[in-house]
Every structure is written in structure tokens, then in C-alpha cells.
Specification:
This protein starts with a strand and ends in a 13-residue tail after the last strand. By secondary structure, it is mainly β. The longest helix is centred in the middle third of the chain and has 5 residues. The chain has two domains: about 80 residues, Elongation Factor Tu (Ef-tu), domain 3, CATH 2.40.30; about 60 residues, Roll (SH3 type barrels), CATH 2.30.30.240.
Length: about 170
Amino acid sequence: MEKIKIGKIVNAVALKGEVKIYNYSDYKERFEEIEKILVMDGRELREMKIENIRYQKNMVIAKLGGVDDRTQAEKLKDCDVFITEEDLRILPEDTFYIRDLIGCAVVDDAAGQKIGTVKDVIQNCAQDIYQIELTSGGEALVPAVAQFIKKIDIENKIIKINVIPGLIGGAEEV
């Protein structure tokens, strides 16, 4: 069973055993769509039923089964929160999970040559940016926009990009 980290319990809330969860994904409503979460409590992975969800700004406030007072909730502070693959939602077409993009080969669409591998996806910008570890050494940042990303084939772990002068370090102006 593969587990996917989706958040971290950062505090207890009020007196009835609710916990505040910092949500790692861009879709906090997922907590309403699932019945349970996995909580890494020390070295033990505990399955916990979600009894109620509400929100406080960008934080998820959850009432979990078996956690009935503030003392029990405080014991979960700093615990990571996971779901299983079965709980992943189906994404719209041309939308991908970051975990599926990392490790994909990046190929120059025109030349058909591998230029690197996706190392990470940076998300604090107007659009995602793919951090590519170049086969020639070094790294390049490629915005995830149609001008550069021509095709993503998750099944075969290949991303074809349009390489323009200056996009990849060392490219010469023509």
C-alpha cells in the first residue's frame, strides 16, 4: 500500500478533540471526499476515521474518530497525514500529480534527444515550473506552459518540450 503525504497536524483546536491540519495539496476539499486518513503517530501508522471537517482560513479542522478531547488531539501535533492511492482523486485531462512528473525524461521535441530528467516541480509562481536535471550537467527551469511543454506521457515517463534559444543553459542564440 503506497501512502501519499497530504498534510501535517499542527495543533489541537478547542476542547472536543479537533485537530488543525496544514494541507500540502492545492485541494483542501479532498478531506470531505474521503472517509479516513492515515496518521503517522511516532513510528506507528494509524488509520483514523474522519467524523467532521471544517475550515479556518486555509487550514483544515478535522474531528477524528477516537480523539475526543484536547489532550488526545495535542498528542497528534506534528504527525504527518497520509492517504492511500485509492483515495487520490481523478484529475482533469492534462493535469498531473507532481509525484508522477518527477523522474520523467525530458526530450527535445524537435531533435528527439533526451536533455534531462524532471527533478522537482516549483509551484509558488504564476504557473508551475519544471526543474530539470540536465544530462549535460547543471539544471534548467522550464515553465509548464503550452509554449514549451508539447506532450506529457506519464505512462512512458516522457515529457517532450519545445527548446528555444536561451531556454536551456548553454543554448546559443540563432
